[in-house]
């Protein structure tokens, strides 16, 4: 989205982030991880987030109440004013239900 100007870094979440990410992100398996690719729902920069599949470990440990929810963080490479040194992204985070089909 052009024309909005640079967003300042802020650690924020919003119900709409997860909904937008669920619509726009694509997932593909990459070794032991799943790569989620799409545009950050806050800053709209493209990001790719590797998610290590921990579902099996949860099942093995008998903790069955976490079916695959993951907290995703924006990791875009773009500049966001006021971002702490060493961090990437715009600070947005959201929870995604990772559907593992096996
Ligand atoms: Zn960004
Ligand atoms: Zn972002």
Summarize the structure in short.
The protein is an alpha+beta fold.
Question: Could you characterize what this model shows?
Answer:
The N and C termini lie far apart (36 Å). The chain has one domain. The model is unreliable at 56-64 (pLDDT under 50). The chain has helices spanning 15-24, 55-61; strands at residues 26-30, 33-39, 46-52, 69-73, 93-97. It is of the alpha+beta class. Bound molecules: zinc ion (2 copies).
Helix content: 10-25%
Bound compounds: zinc ion
Number of strands: 5
- Low-confidence segments, given as residue ranges, are 56-64
SSE map:
Blueprint: H1 15-24, E1 26-30, E2 33-39, E3 46-52, H2 55-61, E4 69-73, E5 93-97
Antiparallel strand pairs: 1-2, 2-3, 4-5
One zinc ion (ZN) is lined by residues 40, 43, 45, 74, 76, 78, 80, 90.
Keywords:
alpha+beta, three-stranded antiparallel sheet, two-stranded antiparallel sheet, 17% helix, 28% strand, binds zinc ion
